[in-house]
Design a protein that fits this description.
Strand 3 (55-58), helix 3 (64-75) and strand 4 form a beta-alpha-beta unit. By secondary structure, this protein is α/β, with parallel strands linked by helices. The chain starts with a helix and ends in a 10-residue tail after the last helix. Helix content is 31%, strand content 24%. Helix 4 (89-99) crosses helix 5 (111-118) and helix 11 crosses helix 12.
């Protein structure tokens, strides 16, 4: 048995060559056409010396060539490395050198950064350009595919433990770590999703999240391809373009992170589309505020909103909230998927009883192999047979998981634990609040106290006193933010996660500005 991802595409190309595989900006690729293009690319790369185990970095916005490259590279037994296109030069240099990538697949839009870093990456042999107007000195993707059309190269036999993909984590605290995802990890993730959601060849998933992210690539796009379904690809996220694609292509499912859901629900005219084809929407990336869940359910009343929890290290999708429990268990991220065990443990790795917060640990065949060239980080994360996520949560009496916070984001005030997410949820309940983030601030008496950063929706006004009053009505006194700062946007890393460390660093500066009357923050009484 081979676990090669490219063999899945070949299977459907042989049995259903005319079935639609990919739709993108007016282009429609059948499975037969997709297989022909992927084999042609694999032949071209093999002729240029690409071998099993070599790393191929992909710096592209969403397009069919992104997925074609992964399939073609896997066919040769080589390893795909999706790269976040929001990275700056130094970050890209680090990832290309640390991964020892031999080939970079990119496009004209990223030529300035590629040319700036290329000379600093001695192991990078070539750059392959996708699209029109490929820069001089780059190989041309379309030319290679055209020149090798009709050629055949057999898929390399790979086992479940062989490396399918490298994905570098966001690096919120230090250098990003390369997550080693095996073919077995991908296989068991796909089996879990296909089983849970009943995914079939009739499904059509919308890819709107970036394909460099595990959410955009695997929730549930790779699962839909495993089932012989179709993927509808959007190059970038635009609220009305998303809804138009859903209506036109009769999309049945999609992954949307909270940031996209927030922007979608703020857009004008969202109620003018036929969205009845959508069976399920998977959420993930950050904890979803309850008011957003409620509004999304009103826009897609027939859809299963599967509030989810997952990590790059597990190929995403570790827990999902059951459709029947969407309202009853709102705020929960559900139960573990098929073939995955989950525990809540204390600082000594001992299991905790229901309702007692602790670290979330996971065990199962979709848990990653380790971190690329980082045995210390691997040993720290994979202890005693369990993956230690660094996330804090608890299980209720029925086994439903609730996320409390990241370990590093917990605020300890006078010996009491304050989950920033709990305070943020209260702030999000105000309809004038677009975004909110809560961090700890040093305090001489209590050790730490919470402070909040709030982004107000355009055209709206709200005061710190109003938000604090709402918190006082719903939270214990020690959880109420001591200061509320209003800012234009929350700082985020290239994957869209809020950079709370940057907020913690700016608290002192914002307090000084507040003392001079330059801030709209008000201290707690």
């Amino acid at each position: 048995m081979t676990f090669n991802f490219s063999s899945v595409i070949e299977h459907y190309a042989e049995r259903h060559p005319e079935r639609e595989a990919m739709i993108y900006e007016g282009r429609r690729l059948s499975y037969g056409q997709l297989q022909e293009r992927c084999e042609a690319l694999a032949c071209a790369l093999k002729e240029r010396g690409l071998e099993a185990g070599d790393i191929v970095a992909i710096l592209l916005k969403n397009c069919p060539e992104f997925l074609e490259t992964i399939i073609a590279v896997n066919r040769l037994g080589a390893v795909a490395l999706p790269v976040n296109w929001r990275l700056v030069g130094e970050e890209l240099v680090y990832i290309l050198n640390h991964s020892e990538a031999k080939l970079l697949v990119s496009e004209r839009e990223f030529a300035p950064v590629v040319e700036a870093v290329r000379g600093r990456c001695p192991g990078l042999h070539s750059v392959l350009g996708v699209g029109e107007d490929v820069p001089a000195g780059w190989l041309v993707y379309d030319e290679l595919v055209a020149a090798h059309r009709g050629r055949h190269v057999p898929a390399v036999e790979v086992g479940s433990d062989d490396l399918h993909r490298l994905m570098y984590t966001s690096g919120t605290t230090a250098y990003p770590k390369g997550v080693m995802i095996s073919y077995g990890n991908l296989y068991w993730k796909n089996i879990a999703q296909i089983t849970l959601f009943g995914i079939t060849a009739a499904d059509r998933t919308l890819i709107v999240g970036p394909l460099y992210h595990v959410g955009g690539l695997d929730l549930p796009a790779t699962s839909v391809l495993y089932a012989g379904g179709s993927v509808v690809i959007l190059r970038k996220f635009e609220p009305l373009a998303l809804l138009e694609a859903v209506q036109r292509e009769r999309v049945t499912n999609m992954w949307l992170p909270p940031s996209m859901i927030n922007m979608l629900l703020q857009a004008e005219g969202i109620w003018n589309y036929d969205l009845s084809s959508v069976r399920f929407i998977i959420d993930g990336g950050e904890k979803m505020p309850i008011p957003l869940i409620e509004k999304l359910l009103s826009l897609f009343p027939q859809a299963w909103f599967a509030d989810a929890y997952g990590l790059t290290e597990t190929v995403s999708g570790d827990t999902y909230l059951d459709k029947a429990k969407t309202i009853e268990k709102i705020g929960s991220v559900g139960k573990p998927c098929l073939h995955l065990e989950l525990r809540i443990v204390d600082e000594n790795d001992q299991p905790l009883p229901p309702r007692q917060p602790g670290e979330i640990v996971l065990r199962g065949p979709k848990v990653f192999k380790g971190y690329w060239k980082d045995p210390e980080a691997t040993a720290a994360a994979l202890r005693n047979g369990w993956f230690h996520t660094g996330d804090i949560g608890y299980l209720d009496e029925e086994g439903y998981l609730y996320i409390v916070d990241r370990k590093k984001d917990m605020i300890i005030s006078g010996g009491e634990n304050i989950a920033s997410l709990e305070v943020e949820r209260v702030l999000y309940e105000d309809p004038r609040v677009l975004e909110a983030a809560v961090v700890g601030m040093p305090h001489p008496r209590w050790g730490e106290v919470p402070v909040a950063y709030v982004v107000v929706k355009p055209g709206q006004t709200v005061t710190a006193e109003e938000l604090r009053a709402a918190c006082q009505a719903k939270l214990a006194r020690f959880k109420v933010p001591h200061h509320i700062f209003f800012i234009e946007a929350l700082p985020r890393n290239p994957s869209g996660k809020v950079l709370k460390r940057e907020l913690r660093l700016r608290v002192a500066e914002d307090l000084a500005a507040s003392a001079k009357g330059a801030s709209s923050s008000q201290p707690a009484s």
